[in-house]
Structures are given as structure tokens and as C-alpha cells.
Protein 1
Amino acid sequence: MFVRVEDLVAEGFPEPGVGVLRDRGIVELNPVQEAAVREGLFRGVNLVVSSPTASGKTLVGELALVSAAYGGGMGFYLVPLRALASEIYMGLRVWERLGLRIGVTTGDYVDRGERLGRYDIVVATYERFDSLLRHRPGWLGRLRAVVIDELHVVGDPYRGPVLEMIAARLLGSGTQIIGLSATIGNPGVLAEWLGARLVESSWRPVRLVEGYYDQRRRLIVFADGRSERVGGRVYNNAVTLALHSLSQGHQVLVFVHSRSRAEKWAERLAEHMEAQDTLGGGRAGLVEALRSEATRGEYEKLAPLIARGVAYHHAGLSAAARRVVEEGFRERLIRAVFATPTLAAGVNLPARRVLVSIKRYDPVRGYSAGIPVFEYKQMAGRAGRPRFDDIGESIIYDARSPSEARRYIEGGAEPVESRLGNQRSLRIHALALVASGEAGDLEGLISVFAKTLLSIQYRSRRYVENMLRDIVRWLIRHGFIREREGVLEATELGWVTASTYLDPLSTSRYLGYAAEKSDPGVLWLLHASAMTPDYARSMPYISSRIIDMYEEEAWAMSSDGEIPPPPRDSYEYDLWVKAYVHARMLLDWVSEKPVDEITGVYGVGPGDIYSAKETMAWITGALSRVASAADLRDHAEGLEKLSLRLEHGVREDALELIRIRGIGRVRARLLINNGIRSLRDLASAPLEKLVSIPGIGERLALEIKRQAAELLRGEA
């Protein structure tokens, strides 16, 4: 018998919260939630909750945070992705009915975050919360509970070390830690690490039935003994099964390990959709939203597909285009979506039937190889929509044999392992601990690292000590920290690097380039910044064919001093050429070239451009502070302006106008072309002149004039 929500009051949950739960249709807890309460959710006990996708783990986190906040404390809900942060934030706002203040923060690593103290519950990305811990804001004393969603991400090579250090710094602070994880191979190890009780369950609200496609027999074989005969082959297995599933009345989500294939296969499926589906069932509204919000190129490619109930979804799409696809799929206007696996780890978009690829091209091996079982389980777990489906079905469509498919269906997920033991992670987090004052000597560093998963798994204090000694020596040698009689303290350069969230190697490399250049231009600044490890590790893919096209041009630019000279090392040289092409792409962005033009030249998607410019805006903004600390005034001023230009995609003459909310790169250029170049021009411009400019109606004209006058008064 499940626990009724009224029973939570006896466990310590605030009574007014029961009404909020009931109004959401939650009258009793499911087995996962009940077990979490029983193990001490409301008694401050650390918990690791390991259960399948859609098993109600999010509510476990909500209950812990509401209980902590209602008692006068403060709680954080941590997620790996910005998209997830927005989704969780919107869900948590229902608790404002109790008088709780809900906030969200996902960027601006330089901001100390003191203003967040006015909230009771805050949603944040891992990186943003880590940056807050470095700044040590005054409200940390109120912190009572932290929910770590997607705890298994600790095994990710990039985000894992950040998450691991967050947990290590929280352990022993008295803050309750609630780790939420999909099914993994070693949840007990994670629980041991966090000093937590383990809540492990295979329960799902919608029963999952896994299966595979036997191409030779043209048969879908399910693990529960059922089978389905599939008709003639259409293009490939994925399209064939998608068309078959739609004919059965199922909405279908198809996972593909390639953007180009996701797009091409969606187009192939759309060709077979019935003509009467065109613009049926409210799809005209989706098409119109796409036309008004997405780029022209996205509209031209996606609109014909959406009109027939088909779409694709990947990180190359703009946020607006992804939002239209997600909304259409949730409302069942879009019946089939071909998506890359990033969707499985991010947006909550379940489907009655999910088609899964277990093969991915491995560039090291030079051929397609099997993915980890854990990744397969993540994608398969998207099958079945709570409250709509009685079962969810996942089908492997590219297994080479039935036995290979069964290894995934019947196999357990791999154990999660620490990724903290690499040089990059160690230097970043060791510097952060010294800069924040949390570790004043080598023993202090060792003490914090002793609480990491790395230490638990290696079980060797000496191993950790030796790594940290090497890292401390490196940080001293490169001027980030100093040692006086065994006491470690950050230099100004070290503090700036840690507080801006830069990798110390990025700082060191940029200063090395800057030492040879006293008057850098925009292209030089972009190229030097693109060669830092912080940009290189996340740069969007541009094909080698396009990279090679610009190699000779890069040499010419280097000869003219427009970019840093090429390195001798072959690996660094390849990065140098790639960085030039990325710098060139971002130069086009700040030169106000249309997004569709940039995507055509460099073979990237709008989402790639936005991701690259956001990353580079952060790096150049951080490096401007580094340059200032190093007394490189020309670099500091140039980087600061460039950071703002990257954020908004504008030329330098538009920087003043974009301070106005409602004025972006397009409106700013229209205003400048009409002789309005400054806040003063804007404030004094006749209303009728502003209204005559395309895209500026009377309401917006009045608002931007009001803002301009307000900013001018503030500067007076």
C-alpha cells in the first residue's frame, strides 16, 4: 500500500504542502518515493535514489527541498544542462503557493551570487553551483539540502569532476545530499561515497517492454514473448520501423547517432506520410511558430516535415526550433521525431514506442562499435508516457544478431567510475580550493580530495597525495599560487582564474600568446582564445574538408600578424588551424552576418553558432580580467568589448544600443542605419521616426525610449 500524501505531515513535511501535492493530482507516493521517505528523506539523511527514467525521482528531490526551505533553510536543485534547469524551475514554481521564493541561475561565473540569498530554492547547473562555492556567498550558512539530479554524470569526463568536487565540498558540512540517478551498475559505491542510504528500485509507472528487430525474418521480437510482423523495407531499418509503428497508431521517437542521418531519415519518412496529414490537427500553428522564431534555413527544412507530422531534433538546431519540435511532439501533433541521444539525457520527451541504435561510429577504431549498455538503457527508458500509456516499447533496430540485442536487453548497466584523476581537473579544482580559502596547505587539499569518489575507488591516500603535490608545483611554477612556510595562497592571477572558472592552462597559454602581441585585433583575440583548452574541448564540429580549405589563409594571416604564429607540435598545429576557422566563424557572427549565411559557409547548425558564441563570450570575458591582472591593458579592453559583441552578435558601434532590452542585433542595425547611434539619440528621437522603422511598433518605441532616458539619468 502506497503512502498517502497526508501521511507526510507525520514525517515532518509541512502541512500546507499536502494541498499543493493534491492539486497536482498526487494523492499517494509511488514505491520509489515511499522508500525515500522511509529511509530518512525528512530527517536530513543523505540518500542515493537509483531507479529508471520517469519513476518519480524528481518529486523526491522536491519534497526534500520544500521541507528544508519551509523550515527557514535554503535548498539547491542541481542539473547538468541549462535546458533541464529551465524545465525543473518551471515545475518547482508551484511551491510559491507556500510563500517560498524559487530562483534559477545557470551562467555568469564571475557573479558572486549574493542576490540568490533572497530565494528559498534555487535551480542551478553543476558548473554554476561550483562557481558559487568558490565565491563563498553569505547565504551558504542557510544551505540545508542539495539535490544532485543525474548523479551518474559523475562518470562523464567533462562534467563528472565538477560534480564530484561539489559533493566532496558538501560532505561534512551538515548539508543533506539527495543524489538522483538512473539505473547504474554500482549505486552502492555512490551511496558509500556520499555516506548515504541507497534507495534502489526497478519500478516504473509505465511497464517497459524491450525488443529488437530481426531483419532477416522481418520480425520485431519482444522480451515478453510477443512479436510483430513488419511489411516491406523502406529505405532502412529505422525508417521502416518508424513507418510500421505509425501504422499501428504509435507515436515514435527514433534515436540516431548522427545529425545528418537524423535529418535525412526524417525526410525519407515524411515522403511516405499520407497527403491528408499535411497541416492537419493544428500543425499550421507549429509551422507559423517555426517561421517567426527559427532561422530561415531551419524553417525551410523543418516546415515541410512538420506539416506531415515528422521532425528531427539535435543540438545543431536553435533553441527556438527545438522548442517548436518538443511542443509539437508533446501535443502529439508531431508523430515521429528522429533525435540524437542528447535528447535522452536532457529534455523529458517520452513516446509510446522508442527505436534505439546501439551502434556508433568510433573515430579511433575507424568503424561502428557498440555503445555502453547504460546509454542504451537511457534511450530505452524514454518509452512510455505516464498517464497515457499502459506500456512503453523500445526496439533495437541495428543489432547484428539476436544475441547481440539480448546482451543489451538483459545486461546490466556499467559501473560509474571517477573521472577526476586527470591533470586538467586536478589543476582546476586544486586552485579553486586554495583560492576560496577552503584549503590553506597541502594537507587541506588532501583532506578535501579524500572525500571524493576518486579516493573511494582508488583507496590509496598516497596516490592522491602524489598527484596533488605535482599539481601544486605546477600551479606555483606558473604563478597561480604561492607557498610561504607551508601555507598556500592564491596570487591575484590565481584568484582571477579560479573566480572566472577558467582552466589555469587556458590562462597560461593565453598569456604566452599575449606576450608577443601588444596591439591585438579582433581576429587575433578570437584565434588566441579559441586555442585555449576551455574552448577546444567544446568547439562544435566543423568538417575537415572545410578546415583544410582555410589552412593556406591561416598561414597568410599569421605572416601578417593577424593571428598567433603556428606551433611546431603536430597536434597543436591541427588545433591552430581549427581554431582559425572557428575564429573566422565567430568574426562573422560579431560582424552581424546572417545566421543562415554562417551556417552555409561553415557547415554548422544555428545551435552550434549559439553554443560557440556563448562559450567564447565567457572565455573572452574571463580573459579580459586575466589580462587586467597581468597589466595587459590593450588585451583587457579588447577582450571586454569582444565578450559583449559575442553575446549579442553585433559590431562595436552597436554596443551602446544593445543595452536596451528589446534591441538585438537586427533592431540595433536598423536604428543605426536610420541615424540613431546612441542612447541620447534614442531618447531624443521623435516617436513617429521610431515607429516608422520596420519591427518597431508604438508600444516598443515608447518602452525603448523610456529605458534610454532611465539609463541616461543613471549616468548623469
Note: The first strand starts at residue 47 and ends at 50.
Protein 2
Amino acid sequence: MVWHRHSCLSCRQAACKLIRRVLKTRNIGAYRDLLVLFTKYGRKDFRLSLDPETVIASDDTSAEMEPDVARRAVAFANALKGMGPTYVKFGQVLSTRPDIVPPEYIAALESLQDDVEPFSYAEVEKIVEEELKVRISKAFETFESTPLAAASLGQVHRAVLRDGREVVVKVQRPNVREQVRHDLEVFTEIATTIEQHSDIGRKMNLTGAIEQARITLLNELNYEQEARNTEIIRRNLAEFPQISIPTVIGDMTTSRVLTTELVRGRKVSKLTPLQIIDHDYAELAATLTRAYLKQVCVDGIWHSDPHPGNVFVRDLEDNQAEVVLLDFGMVSRISREFQDEIIKMLLGMSSNRGAEVADACVRVSEVQEGFDAMKFVREISTVVATFHDVDVRQINVGQLIFNVISIANNNELKAPAELAMLAKTLLHLDGVTRRLDPEYDPHTVIRDYAEKLMSQKLAQKFAPRNFYPALLDLNQLVLDLPHRTREIIDQTAAGKLSFSLKLMQAEQFLAGMHKIANRITVGVVIAALLIASSMMMRVPTRVALFGYPAMAMIGYLLAAAAGLYLIVTTFLRDRADEERAKLKGK
């Protein structure tokens, strides 16, 4: 994988224009550092081509690569660590983009997950006491000075509360918020300029990616938001007993200090082959996938950072085990409409239906001038079919979505940043499930879980609260109808109501109005039956039908019969009208 020469030239030209048009001279040092960094490393090793043939063949490890790429990868990771927490986060994101960076860089950048220099205990003590408004010795029985782990935005310490509960305390790095905001400002300026002067920058939607990163990072810097995310996802995953989420200690949590219960277990990344053999974790891998499908496709909010360091396995009695999810600072949210398209996309991928994947991608993306739908469907179908031909141990849904995004960008289709976040999540999830079960097949789980997923979506859509707006509109229509009818009668009586119609069109017009009125009437009746039945579902009755209140089910059946009648009569009458029109035309 190499950075094509035209891509390099394009980006360097954009960078030169950026320097000539510096918007804020105080950021010139950051511009220079970034330019040097990516000229020195990425110019030789990163693959920024959007050629669909190279996208489809992106897994080819035989492509030409500089022999000392591993050394440059380590140097690149060390350079990012020296540039600050925002750059470390950027490196972590790059480590999940095999479509851009080679395996040597992924290995070096993954070390940024855990290998970050901690800050001093004196600063930890100062921040904790400022936030909790109490001395550490008063709030905690013990508080270990050596951190369990240090990350780009904060670090974690083990402690014991006064009541004896063992906890972990995450403390935010000093002054990190100001530094992140400044770095994001620089990234935004650079991304905007590259998009203005480079086709690759525009097609890759750099500003959208930076905006998504800004939202994610600022949320990660608010530990109170992370606590809320934790509780929301805990409730949403309550139906999965094999998945555990640590409890947040609310009165010991602020925007810069987060206290949760201590979880004992093993990181998925630390599982040995012998431990995997001794414990059958295959069901655990499937459960984890189902839980993430529910988060994404039903709840619309998901834990988007399930890298192996944030996933623990805890062994229970009777050779049972559970997965523990940690760190809910990074979550993603999508709308219900977006969820529906994601379901179609995932089902299309698992069933080798590339056209469905392409259609779903178009519906969630921004279509640019010059978009060729036929060419896009053909390329997506090719990459989905190629994906299905590989061995089950090489299947990676996240990688496939990244390939779909690359093809979309190359075809004048601007994919949303949320889709890239989903791909990143599934890429991480694949790494976790592979550790739990080397023979894991995500396609089988997606297909098997699809039926339950669809039933959950339908139950969500037909919940009574979703009909309240329609009920209010219907109520307003009923209230307005007498007034509007009186206005029409008064105007008719005064001779003020008139229609501008030719006599030869009157019969056709009245017939058309008659059909429309009939269809509207039946539609209103169907809507009223559905709304009333949905409200009666909550009323307990002695008589049940199919396990549900009988009156509610009768209402649904009547609505279904009326809807079928409306569809059939509409189809038959429209066909008859078409035939009459053809005869008149002759």
C-alpha cells in the first residue's frame, strides 16, 4: 500500500496554499509540525488513493512497501505522543483505518491505547480535591498513587471508599481541555483548506470527520456525560445477562473525576491461547455482537470504543463467563431513519446483496453533482461479492464498511461521518470477537439475529407514544372541520364559492374528487383504528387474542382488512382508468 504520486502532489499543493493563506499566525507552528510529520512518514506509507480497484484489493499484503516501514511507524507513533493528547487520539483513530495505514503503523499506533506517559500524583491529588471539594484522605480509605493505566485524556487509579467498596477513579489530565480545543481549531482550518484545494480532501469529507471528532472528544472530556452514557447503555443492555457494565458512584463523580466500581477480570487482549481453549467463549462472542447490533439498530446509541483494552472477561461459576464493557466516554448516536438504513446495509452485506447495500448507502449520504448510480451499484456489488469469497476467519464487517465509504467518496457521494464511526466500532468489535473465538462468523449471527432485530424495531415504531402527534393532528382536524364546513356553506350561499373548470373536464374532475375522498376516508378510518388499538394494548382485559387484549387485536385486524381493501381497490380502479385512457387515446 503506497501513497500514489498524484495524491501526494495534490496534498502538498494544498498544504503550501494553506501556509500562504495562514488565517491565524499563532497556529503557524502547528501547521509546520503537521506538514513535517506527514511529509516525513505518511507520504511514503499511507494509502490515500480513492481508486476503486485499489480499494477492493486493499487487503493485498504483497504490495510494494519500504523495508524500514516498521521503524518509521514507531517513530510516527512517538512523534504523536510528543505532540499532545489530541494527536494521540488522532493516532488511535488511524490505528482503526486499515484502508489508509499499513499493518506496521496499525501495530505501532495501537500501543497508544495504553502506552501514554502518566502525569504526577501531586496533580492527581490537586484535581481530585478541587473537584470533590474534600481531601483525598477524607473521601477514600486508600488511594493508590501509581495509576493502573494512563491514556491520552486521563488516567485511572485504584482506590477504596470509606464504606469499603473498591473503586477506580479516572482523573482528567491538567489543562487538557484547552489544548484539545486549540488542536481541533487547527485541524478544522487545515481540513477546510484541503477540501477547498484538493479533490481527495473533498471526497474524503475531512471537515465532516473533524466535526465528528470534535463532538466525540468534547464529550469524552465531560465525565458527567460519560456517567450518563454508562447508565443509558446499562439500561439498554439489561436483556443481556452475560454483559456487565460497572456501576458509577454518582456522588464521587464530576466533569473531571469519574468514580466507578472496580471490575476484576482479564483484558480480552491478554487472553492466552490456553485460556481460550479451557473456556468456550464462542457464545460470548455472539452475545457481544447481538448486543452491539441492538445498540446501533434499535437504541440508536452505542459504545463506539470497544477496543480490546476496554473489554474484560470475567469467569463465573459453573464454567460460565461474562463480558465487562468499560469507558463510555466515546459513544455515537444516530436517528431512527439512519438505523433502518444500517439494518438494510448489514443484512445486504451478510446475504451478498450488493445492490441493497448501495441503495442504503445512497439514502444516508449526500449526493454530489456527477454521481453515477449504475457505476456505484456495480462497484459496491463487486466489493461485497469479493468480501463473501474470503475465508470466514478473514471476514471483517468494519473493513467492508470502510471500503463502501471509500467507493462512495470516489463516486461523488459524501458518506456521513457517523458511518465511519460505525465502521470503526465494528472493526474494534471484530478484533474482540476474534480473540474470544478464532472461528467466529459475524454473518451467521447477523442473519440469525435479524428477525428479532426487526421485531424490536417494529415494536418501537408502533409504540403508542409514536401515534400521539398523529392523534393530535386528527383531533385538530375534527375541531376545525365544522368551522371549515360552515365557511364553505356561507360562501356557497353568498355566491362567492366558484371553481374555474371547463365543462368537458367537470365529469373527470368530480370522479377524481370522489375517488380521493373515498381513499382519504378509508385512510382516516385505518389511522383511527390503529391509534385506538395501540392505546387499548395497555388496557388489561380478561379476553385475549393471540396473547394480547382482544379489542386491540380486533382493531388491528379491521385496520389490516381495510388497508388491504384500499390497496386492492386502488390498484384495480387505477388499472381500469389507464385502460380507458388508452382507448380514448386511440
Note: The first strand starts at residue 140 and ends at 143.
Protein 3
Amino acid sequence: MSNLKLEDEACLVLCGEAGQGIQTVENIMIQALKKGGYHVFSTKEYMSRVRGGQNSTEIRVSSRRVKAYKEGIDILVALSPQAIDHLKERISSKTLIIGDEEILKDVDDRNYRLLKSPFISRAKQLGGIIFSNVIAAGTLACIMGVDKKIFDNIITLLFKSKGEEILKGDLKAGDVGYELGYKLMEKGITIKIEKDPKISNEILINGTEAVGLGCISGGCRFISSYPMTPSSPLQSFLASNASDFELIFEQAEDEIAAINMALGASYAGARAMTATSGSGYALMVEAVGLAGMIETPVVIYLAQRPGPAVGLPTRTAQEDLNLALYGCPGEFPRIIFAPGKFKDALELSHQAFNLADKYQIPVFILSDQYFADMYYNLPSLTIEDLEVENYLLETSQDYKRYQLTSDGISPRGVPGYGLGLVGVDSDEHDEEAHITEDLNMRTRMVDKRLKKLDDIKKEAIPGELFSTSSNGNFKNLILGWGSTYWPLKEALTLFDDHDIALLHIKQLYPLHPEVAEYIKKAERSVMFENNAQGQMANLIESETGLKIDKRVLKYNGMPFSVEEIYEVLENLEED
């Protein structure tokens, strides 16, 4: 029952209680495996509690690039008695479960493939159960054929700041893990995944860091935010790099203060942003309307999670498109991006700052917990072709902040740069920013602001079309946005039917004209979304008059898996 042979790829999952260091194991493993020459992908699901509950991390290890969540588990390391029950729907007859005898004592080995290994008892011998996470990491690294020196180097990098004694204990835990790993391999675990030494030099980042790099390269100089999962990691990333890039990070007392600080910084001439999640953004909407009225650029990173209200604070969703699009008083233009891969995250985040400055509007970057937290390796991310565009001018004495222009874009000055007075007012105003109740002027100002949409639409960023057909023809069009990109694409590559294509939409609003063109070309269209109402499908219908034929909606807090998408594609002809 314990024999296991894995070729080309392995899906490893670790599960235990919050507080047992599951994330620590993930950090150790993905770095060690990548350094060892494997392609890696990881994602996590965790409960919103400091102790207890069940958290798990999935790590895919492969000889090819892997970047999507799979349901199937090859090896499960159970660090708590409840781990198996928590993941029972993902465990198959092929899954090998490794755990301490104390953890597995009540598990029926007639129903599961079990391998018992003394993680906990050996951890206690080292000084505490806390060492069980590093022992588990060492065991997996050994099974996967990672050189012990690589593993020790990773342990040293992660734990040396905690002091010599703690580092010494963790290195010993790694020794124990390798010792146990060799013993398990003697029981029939065979791993045949091809390594590539070049992979060890590739970068390994997560979605949050990809967005953060785009913000920095886009010239962000000020971020003010209030912590809220899953936007907090971006705040931490930018704060930790602030001193190197002349960037100011301010943790505000609440979301209202945060966005108003960002608007103040932008009014003064700094490229500014804020980061939040759904119910935090709900507090910001009045100030987003203020940005629309005073035509002050701001970038808003909206990391989605299930709602309404607090919902599932640590799970994933695509439920806030409507909130970003409609959740403000009045009518004014905005742009909404949703990256699906790290290259898009870098480039779209960079471009968000240019477009916010050019059109003097709010620009949204929609992310979610799954995208923000997932890791994978890639050769590089380049910013060589990305420029920071400057749209500020030195004002003259007769400067009018809201000058009526043919394209709706008033020349933008900032206080202290030139001789002009840079007025601003949240009430309706005339060209010089004086409050007005002139109804004709009101109409002209609304028209001026909305006129920008004409040029914004011309600059809309196209999506990415992927087809398995050599000539690009297709009968069925699969559509997705944001973090659905990689699961959809991987599922499509597994499918033999060449009549299917994937359109991943990067700019959700305003839509690029190609979206309508591709839908018209297809005999059938299918939209995948992590929400209950098909918000993107509704937007497409509203903007183009075209109805999406089939909606595949998932809103339980988990991302789409490759397997469930494949099943939908396989049954398309039967629908």
C-alpha cells in the first residue's frame, strides 16, 4: 500500500492547524525545490484564526512550468489529526498520506495509503513540537532529491535572524527530516521528475510582489492604507522597499483616512495609491467620488475576498467588479485592470499610474487572495520597455485647473510648480475651481469629465487569446479574467478539441472592442468567474448587447482547479 511512483510531476500538500508553521514549510520547500532544479507552484488555503482550524499548502513540483491549482494530491503530509477529514474530497486511492503515528492512529489503513513517520516524537526530542514543521520539510526535500546543502542554506537564510540557538535547532530538525526521508524511500517511494540546473537561478515570486514591482516601476511615491487581508501583503512589500525607492508608506487609522491621504499626496504631485479589500473599499467610495470630481489621479489596489461584509476574510473571490465599477456617487470615468499572470501584474500595475496621471482619474487593479498568495518561478520580469510618463506642467499666472478642452483633459498643475493657483473643490466648479451652481456650467463639466472615455477606450489594453488550433479558428470561446488565467489555460492545453480558444480579459473596463468581435465569431461562449452572479458576463452584455451562452460560477472561497475546468470543457458538446 505504501509504494508510490511519481514521474514528471508531484502534487504535495501539507495540512495542519494554524500555528503549526504550515507557511514556514511552504517557504522552505518552494525555495529548496526551485534551487534544486524543479519548476514549482504553490498556493495556500487558510482560516481566519491564529490558532486551531485547518490550514493547507499545495506545492506542485514538475519538470515543466506549472502555475495553477490542482485538486488531486499525490503526497499529503498530515500534521494534525483533522487534516485528512479536512481534505477528504481531494484525497484519492492514489494519495500517499505521511504522518506521525500519533496523528494517524485512528485512521483506517484499509481506506487510505498510509506511511507513518515520527515527526512529532522526534520534534519533542529536539525541544518542542514546533520543530515538526521543519522535520516535515526536510522529509519532503529528501524524498524529492534536494541536495542537503541546498536545504541547509535555505534554513540558514530563513532563521539566522532569530538567533544562533534557534538556527541550530532548525538545522538539526532538517537533519532528522532527511533521516526520516531516507527511511520512507526504502518503503517504495520513487520520484522521477527531471531537474534543470538553470531553474535554480530563476526568480520565485508571488502575485503580490509582481504587483508591487509594477507599482514601484510605475513611479509610485506614496501609499496610504489600512491593513486588510488580502491587500496587507502589498502594503508590507511596498513598506519594506520604501527606503530604496524614495517611497512613503503611511498606515492610516482607517480606510477613509487612507484614500484621502493618497488624494492629498496626488494633489501635491506625487504618484499615489491605496490598497484595500471589499468592505474596506466600501468606506472609500465617497473619496473615490471626490477623486472623480476634483480630477485627481489615484491608483486603487482592490484585493478581493468573499463578502458581503467580512464574509470569508482569508479566502478568494472575484466579487468586487461591480463595487469598483458602480460603487461611487455620480458619473465619471475610471479604468479597471485585472492581471492573470505575473507579467501582466507588473505591466498593468505600471500602466495604471501612467493612465491615472494622463486622464486624472481613479485606476483600479483588481486582485484576489489566490492571485496575491500564489508563487511560481519564471526566468525574469523586465521593465526595460516600461516608461514613466510625465503629464504635469508648470503653471502660468492665468492657469485654470479645470479648463474646458476638446478631449476633456485639463492641463494638470500642482501647487508650487509655476505661477498659477491650483484650485480644487469637491462641489461642482467652474474652470478656475470656484464653486458654481450655474446649471449650464454643470452640464459642461460633466460632459468634460466623461469626454475622457473616448480616448480611454481607444487606449484599452487587449486581452490574450490562446487557441489550441494552429490556424487560430475556434467554435467555442472560453472567457475569464484575473486569477482564472492559468487554470483555464492549463486545462485547455490538456484538451484535444482544437475548436476551443481562451480569451483572458485584462482590462475589464472600458472593454476592448475585440471582446465583442471574438464573442461574435464563436458559436458558443463560456465565462468562468469566482462569483455567484457572473459580474463580468453581465458587464459584457451591458456594454456590447452580447449574451454569454454559459456561465461557470464558483463562489465557495476556493479557486477553480484545472480538473474541474477540464471536466466542463469535456462536456461542452453535451450541454
Note: The chain has four domains: 4-195, 205-378, 392-459, 464-574.
Protein 4
Amino acid sequence: MDRKITKYVLEALSVLYSNKADIKSEVHVEKTKKGIDGDFTVVVFPLVKYSKKSPQDTAQEIGVFIKSRYKEIASYNVIKGFLNLTMSSECWIDALNKLNTEELNKANSPKDKTFMIEFSSPNTNKPLHLGHIRNNLLGDSISKILKANGYDIIKANLINDRGIHICKTIYAWIKWGKGATPESEKIKGDKLVGNFYVLFENKYKAQVEKLIKSGMDKHEAENSASLIIETREILKKWEANDPEIIEIWKMMNEWVYKGFNETYKNIGIEFDKYYYESETYLLGKDIVKRGLEDNIFYKEKDNSVWIDLEKEEFEKKLLLRDDGTTVYMTQDLGTAFQRFDDYELDKIIYVVGNEQNYHFKLLKEIIAKFDKNMAKKIKHLSYGMVELPEGKMKSREGKVVDADDLINEMLVTARKIAKEQGKIHELSKQEREKIIRIIAMGALKYFILKIDPKKNMIFNPAESIDFNGNTGPFIQYTYARIKSVLRNAEKMKIKFTGKISEDTKIVDKEINLISQLISYKTTVENASETLDPGIITNYLYDLVKEYNQFYHDYNILKEKSFNILQFRLILSQQVAEIIQAGMNLLGIEVPEIM
């Protein structure tokens, strides 16, 4: 509707002031502020250079012109340099009639661009935790939002399955594991491996502290501890393809992958492409070799390889250790080049926490030395850390919120609340558990996604599952309420299909709802441009608040006027469809009964 008003304003400028220039970008149309009469406001100040008149007179003349020519404009008023337009009831009804809910889940016109979204990217030395949950939910939702805006999307997961941290778990299992398996310990494989990682770190920490007490400084102690020396030997053996180490590595990785897949399934996450660092790190070595040949990198006397970016206001960066082993940057270089070889990508979006901001700036800078165009296609979606009310998590010390434990806690809380509400007690146990899971996952996802990705956040499970306020269950409950109204209408044999009659009398609350409904597509576009699912959560919350107020103030099924009854049922149906479409972009299901 704002585009239509822009068209009318441009026509007015052409006729009234003989302006033939393309000035669409200078016409600003926005929703009228609360407390002012009108639906849309035209900011006139930028247009006075064409009228050569005051903002007040310009707004008045444009208002007269538009009102006299277009029946959609019921009235107008001018406040200083602002032209406030009130749309006719017929205009709003026409807009609602044109809303095709079946098209909501379809993408906007194709962009002919392919984006790869990398997210999750776990290490195979520990289970997924709350931090991974935010990463996965952001990556998945952003993928859905971009796809809804017409982009071809490849969801990629880079498994960090090699390196010194992985060798720590291998060492711990060999030294202290006594042949333990997930079956023998009755524990998920990723949790078992994570326990060995924590065990190693605790024993290593004790060794380091002992060496410091003997007179070494911290750096010397950390590098002289026998545990780290022996672990580095395992890393060398791994890179040398030692059969015994490789066999243990594969076995432990399989335990972890099975555990990861179970967690991914529980939160509804799937990927289109998996990359493994164990396969791409060698590509990084090839890039290092190429960089040395092209004098992009240089070699020190100890054979370590570096890049000097001090002129670009970065530090010197190590790319290959003196023993020939790689670092994270080397692996990321190899993986990036591999992806552009695998696909014709227009952009790679890395969903990675803000503690890696410097790393990705450096990655782009190094890639630009090889290919400036490729570097421009790399985007780091930096997000803030997740903390608990009691403070920061520390995975090395085992002080983390395990993803599986969190999901179970959400299920327990949802089950308790559902029992208190008493809405689903008549359903079968299987149906009840399905709805409880939908509520629990909806609460978790919505709470995390409503926060601006750039901000740190504190996750409170109890607060997230509240049925009131800006929460997933509140949105889900409104959807279920509407579906209940529509089911009751069908039981009463009330038909609510076809077009709404233009002479139906509608009230301000209904106009507000239609106005919000028709802004859905723009909202999804904004979320795509900013890579922020929170824009959609805020939109849904405002829509649901408006609908619940309407539901409280006006009769639907008891309405005596057939036209108004038809209108309110179709309006309710459209609200439900938009809720479902928006929640789908957040990866959240909506139950029909709650």
C-alpha cells in the first residue's frame, strides 16, 4: 500500500509541478505515528525543491490532488511538513481480499544468487551445548529467511574433527579410558568423548600448576608439561596417518557423530553439505605452498610459515608451525577455496561467535591477497555469547549447559505447564507429547531468536516458556485459539470463503490488523537484509497482541451481521496463516490445540 501512495505522490509532483525526473527514492512513506489521525504519512520536506513552496502548502496541494483522484484515500490532514492520509474501508478490504495465504511460504521472485550459510561447526571433542544451540538456531532461521526472499541456499556444517584438541581426547582415552565405549558406559558418544576432554584438561592444569610452583613461568610450564608434549606427538602421528591413531580417531568420531545427529534431530536441524577439517586441512597446506611461491607468505628460519599484514594494520599471522602442522587459519583458507570450487557462490555467510571477529577480518584480508572478488563474497555473521543467570560457561572445565540436558529441561517445564493449563488432557499420550515438544522447542527457539544476534544474551528457561509476554508459547497459543474459532465456525456450518463484501463496515482494530498483515512480506525482506530473525519475532508479537485485543473487544461467532461475521473469520484465518508462515521462518511449529 505504501508503494501505491508513492506512485500517487510522484504523479502529483509531475502534474502539479511539471516534475519529470525519477525521484522515487526521495518520496518517504511511513506508518502514521500513534495519536495522529491517519494511516500513512508522506514526509514532504524533501519535495519542496520541486514545488518551490513551503512544506505546509506543498503537503496541502498534494493532499488535495490525491484525494480528488483516488477513491482509496478517505481523507487527509497536514501537520507542518507531514501529509497524513487515511485509507478508505474499501481499500483495506480490497487489500485483505488480495492477500493470498497459500503464497506466504513461497519465496519472493528468485534472485539468481546462491548463498552458503555455514553454521554449527562443532568440535568432535565435546557434545553440543547452549552456545551451539544459539548458533544452530540462528543459522537455520537465517537460511529459511534468505530462501523465502528468493536466494538459493546451501546449509553447510564444517566438522572440526582434527587438531590438538581432538588429540587430547584420543590421548585421554588411550591413557585412562580402559576401553570404555558408549555402550559400556551407557552414555551418548559425544558426552563420553567430552568427559575425556574435561579429564585431560583437569590433569593438564594440575601439571602446569606444579611446574609453575617449581619455578617456571606460565608459558614455559604450559609447553613443558608431559601431557601436552605427548599429545603433540599424537597429532604428528595423526598427520603422518599412523594406523593405530587413525583407527582410534575414527572410532571416537563415530561415537560423536551419532550423538550430534540425535541432538540435531531434536532441535530440527538439517544440513545440505558437510565439510570435515580432516579433509580440508591439506588444501590449506596447498594454499600455503601457493602463497610462498607468490611471495604472499614467507618462511622463518625454523621453517614456520607466516604472513605479514602489519601494513594493513593487522599482526603477523602464523600459517604453518615449525613442525609442519597447520593452524585454524590454514584450515579455513583451504575450506573457503574448496567451497568456491564446489559451487558458484555469490556469498558465504559464516555464523560464528563474536570472539572470532578478528579471525574473520584476517581471513578476508589473506584471501584478498589471492582473489579480491572472493574476499568480497565472505560475510561473518557475528553473534554474541549466551550466558546463564549464574554466569559464563566454560567447556574446558565441564561448566556448560549441555544441549540435550537443556532440551529435556524444556520438555519437563512444558509438560508441567501443559498439565496446569489442562487444555490437552483429552488427547492421547502420543498427541500430548507431540504438542509438549512443539511448545518446548518453540519456547527455546523464540527466546533465543528474538534477541539481536549482535548482542550477548542471558538464557532463562523458565522465562522463555511463559504463556504471557513476548514468548514462543504466547504466539503458539494465539494460533491455537484462532484455529479453535475456525473449527467451531465449521461445526456451526458457517461458510467463510470467497471475497469480503466492500460495503462491510470495519473498525480501527480490524484496520490495524490488516495493516500489519500486509506488511509481512516487507518484514521478511528486512530480516533478510539485516540477517536478524528478531525482526520477525517482534512482528509476530505485535500482530498477536493486536489480534488478542481485537478478540477480547469484538464478537466473532456471535456476530449477527453476515458480512461482518464473514470478514472477521477471514481476517482471523489470515492472521493464523501469517503466524504459521512467520514461525516457520524461525524453525518453530505451531500446534492447533493447546
Note: The two ends are 35 Å apart (CA to CA).
